[in-house]
Structures are given as structure tokens and as C-alpha cells.
Automatic annotation (TrEMBL):
GO terms (BP aspect): fatty acid biosynthetic process
UniProt cross-references to InterPro entries, sorted A to Z: Ac_transferase_dom_sf (IPR001227), Acyl_transferase_dom (IPR014043), Acyl_Trfase/lysoPLipase (IPR016035), Mal-CoA-ACP_Trans/PKS_FabD (IPR050858)
One Pfam family hit: Acyl_transf_1
GO terms for MF: [acyl-carrier-protein] S-malonyltransferase activity
Protein name as annotated: [acyl-carrier-protein] S-malonyltransferase
GO CC, one annotated term: cytosol
Domain of life of the organism encoding this protein: Bacteria
Organism taxonomic ancestry: Bacteria, Pseudomonadati, Pseudomonadota, Gammaproteobacteria, Moraxellales
Record organism: Acinetobacter marinus
Transmembrane segments: none
Keyword Transferase assigned: yes
UniProt domain Malonyl-CoA:ACP transacylase (MAT): residue ranges: 6-302
Alphabetic keyword roster: Transferase
Keyword Transferase included in the entry's annotation: yes
Length: 305
């Protein structure tokens, strides 16, 4: 069977994922690395709100995704492509190139630090649904906000400063926009607000030696399917300060006709979006299952093992 693996971004991590990562760390013998490079993971008083701070969230999610992939890769017979949503594109690159956990975690740390420093004022992201982009654009310009992610023709993620986002929310509420929701992300990712992070992250990536891609990557930046390592690296650099076209990425996933799409998490938002577009597609998220054994039982049933 052919699989596509989707790596999620920030916003849906929770305290159960903390316990899960600690358990994986024991299994994969990376406790020392996490205690050194992500010490707050082992803080006794860690709370839900701590999980959304950018400089914790990005390396934490990378670590969780890396561990989940080491487990899942042993269960699958044929993976036709990876796809990464926002931070997930870094995880996809590292997993496809078999980059070491330590190196990938350092890159996630660096990405988070640079993006946090680029956001000099309180800022973040909001989700907007029920409006056309041509109608939305004048409101973005008037409020000083920018498109961060296109999810569909009527669903978008918008990035900007907190005051500007609130202004935009007020403006859109008055014209009957269906849904406006603040996301648990503390930076305006994939907008020009991140521009100062681009060059130093580019320089950081150039210092690392990546192997060739073992699995092609469908880029979240616009649905391009990359088979060459440098193309995937370039896309990762560009998406820091440019809007992601996840709508096009999902279209390419559909057109690839995979037997099963697995969302590696955290969360299940990507799988839900795909199912809305193609209800007959077999799409599941790791977080749909209450246990590792439950996921393995379901997967073995699909594989007829």
C-alpha cells in the first residue's frame, strides 16, 4: 500500500504529548539530549500555556514527530511522499534525509529562536473562515496584517501584531465573516514580519550536511513535489517569510492517489481538512487513537497482516 505522511505544525500540542515524548525518549535513548537541550520538558510544574511558547513549541514538536516517525517507519511498506505544514516541513526534511535527532533538534531550536527574535512586538495568528481572499485583502492592508496560510478558497490563517489582529477581527465581525479564531501561536509565521530570520536560518542550514531525500516531499509552500535535497531546503527557507499555500499542497496529495494518508501530529487538523475535501480518502491521525497498540491494530488491519 502507498502512504503519504503529513507532519503537523504548532497549536494543538497538549500535556499528554509531554508524557508521550518522555516515554519515547527512554525508548530511543535521547533523554540526555532532551534534558540538555529542552530542559523544561522535564519541569515538574510545566503547564498547558508553557507548551505554546514558540521557543519551546518548535523543538518539542520536532522531537515528538521525529520519535513518532522512528516508530511508524517500521510498520509501513511503502511511503510515496512526506508533506509538512509549517514547522512540519522541517521535520519532513530531517526525516527524509535521516538527519540525526541531535542535529534536527538544533535546527528546530535555531528556527524558533530566530523567529521569536524577529517578532519584536506581541503578535500571532488568527484563523478566518467564510470570506474570499479578494474580499479579505483590502481588510488586511487596512489593518496591517498579512496572509500566512491559505487553507482553501474561503479559509485562511492571518499573521500580524496583536493590536492589528484585533482590529482585523473587529472589522471582519462587522461584515459577517463566519469564523474568527485566535490560534495558540505567538509569532506571525510565514509573513514578512519574519524577514530578519531568513538569512541567519539560511546560513544555519548551510552549515549542516543533509543526505539525499529518501522520500520525496510535497512542499507546503505551494504543492511542489521535491526529489532533490536542495530544492527542499530552499523551500524551507522561503516559507519562513512567505505565505504557505496548503490548499495547493492538499490538492497534490489528492492527485497522488495514496492508499492511506497518515497525519503524524500533534493534533488531527490536517486529516480533517483532507477528509472535508475527499470524504472517500482513508485519512487518519496518530492522535485519533488512544494508544500505540490501537494505532498498530488499525494499521495492521489495513495492511491485512
Amino acid at each position: 500500500m502507498n502512504f503519504i505522511i503529513c507532519f503537523s505544525g504548532q497549536g494543538l500540542q497538549n500535556l499528554q504529548h509531554i508524557e508521550e515524548l518522555r516515554a519515547w525518549a527512554e525508548e530511543f535513548k535521547i533523554v540526555d539530549t532532551l534534558q540538555r537541550d529542552l530542559p523544561s520538558l522535564y519541569a515538574e510544574d510545566i503547564s498547558e500555556i508553557d507548551l505554546y511558547q514558540n521557543e519551546f513549541a518548535q523543538p518539542f514538536i520536532f522531537a515528538l514527530q521525529w520519535c513518532r516517525w522512528q516508530w511508524i517507519r517500521t510498520l509501513l511498506d511503502d511511503v510515496m511522499a512526506f508533506s509538512g505544514y509549517s514547522l512540519g516541513e522541517l521535520s519532513a526534511l530531517c526525516c527524509s534525509t535521516n538527519t540525526s535527532f541531535e542535529q534536527g533538534l538544533r535546527l528546530a531550536h535555531k528556527r524558533a529562536m530566530l523567529m521569536s527574535h524577529a517578532a519584536q512586538q506581541p503578535s500571532g495568528l488568527i484563523a478566518v473562515q467564510g470570506i474570499n481572499l479578494n474580499v479579505l485583502n483590502p481588510y488586511l492592508q487596512a489593518s496591517g496584517n498579512e496572509l500566512s496560510i491559505k487553507l482553501s478558497d474561503s479559509s485562511f490563517i492571518i499573521g500580524g501584531l496583536n493590536d492589528n489582529l484585533q482590529q482585523l477581527s473587529n472589522m471582519l465581525s462587522k461584515v459577517g465573516t463566519r469564523t474568527i479564531k485566535r490560534l495558540n501561536v505567538s509569532i506571525p509565521s510565514h509573513t514578512s514580519f519574519m524577514q530578519t530570520a531568513v538569512l541567519p536560518f539560511h546560513q544555519e542550514l548551510q552549515q549542516h550536511t543533509f543526505s539525499d531525500l529518501s522520500i520525496p516531499i510535497i512542499s507546503g509552500s505551494g504543492g511542489h513535489k521535491y526529489f532533490e535535497r536542495q530544492d527542499a531546503v530552499n523551500a524551507l527557507i522561503q516559507q519562513m517569510s512567505h505565505a504557505i499555500d496548503w490548499d495547493s499542497c492538499m490538492r497534490v496529495v489528492q492527485e497522488s492517489l495514496p492508499d492511506i494518508v497518515l497525519e503524524i501530529g500533534p493534533g488531527s487538523s490536517l486529516s480533517k481538512m483532507l477528509l472535508e475535501r475527499e470524504p472517500n480518502m482513508i485519512v487518519r491521525a496518530v492522535d485519533d487513537f488512544k494508544s500505540r497498540a490501537g494505532f498498530e491494530t488499525w494499521l495492521k488491519g489495513k495492511l491485512n497482516i
